[in-house]
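Question (not urgent): is this output format expected?
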Amino acid sequence: MAKVTIAIEHDDRLTRTTCEHDDEAQALAQCIYRIAETSPSDRVAWIADAVHRLMRGEPTDRT
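Got this back:
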């Protein structure tokens, strides 16, 4: 079981997201996706979309 924790410090506020999965890549992808769900940043959403595409084996470029 892989456990991934991502900590984000923004304006002196620290948030942590922890995810567990049998596959460490899946655990990392879950954490990124969870962060994107609550982030107002378009760039975070774009990163989460790219991760999701990679995990499904799809191309990540948008051209």
